[in-house]
Amino acid sequence: MARGYDLTSDAGTKEYLRDVEIEYQFQCLDQKEVDGCHRLGEFLENIRKNTTAAAAIYKENCDKGNYTRSCLKYGHCLNFGNGVKEDKTAALQYFEKTCKLGNGSGCFYAGLIDLKLSLAEGKTPDKAVQLMSQSCDLKCSEGCFILASWHLLGRYTDKDLRKAFELNQKGCNLENVGCCSNLSIMYRHGHGTNKDLSLATEMKKRAEQYSADHLKKQPVLKFNE
Asked: Which regions form coiled coils (predicted)?
């Protein structure tokens, strides 16, 4: 799309969006590019507000193309009933597939759903703990934070302050505010590590800095990445 568009006018904006949609349709339907299909799904979901069509594209792109981001997206569609009928069990399956494809967020959301389903059935959520561990290993900071919290409290797994400390270290290095805050407290009281007031102060400052950085970041919808 080398041509110029007058995005200050409604007509120019509509023309631009029409051409973007045509480009993504070509990439997906003609060229069979999985990233193009995912972009088309995002365009339909966020610009056209056609969640049903978007969900169908995410599903096919995951089922046939094993495209991780589409698997994650379709899992969310199923989890929240966005464009499809809500189905937690099916959502779990797609999040688990995302996890197996090496995406930490897939492991994280699979863990959350497995925890909910296991508790509802009166089962021990061992699988949820395993999935959270995988999510942290795959650099999903939220997974590190959740699993660290479970070890701190002895909830759903053994109480292990040293393990909680190590998980919080991982999460803090991934700029997770909660993990850095936990580290500050653990250093201050000597929980799971040696007491160190200097490091406690440093971790508190990191938490405050990461929190400020996150607030500055505004969500931006991007189609060509």
From this structure: none
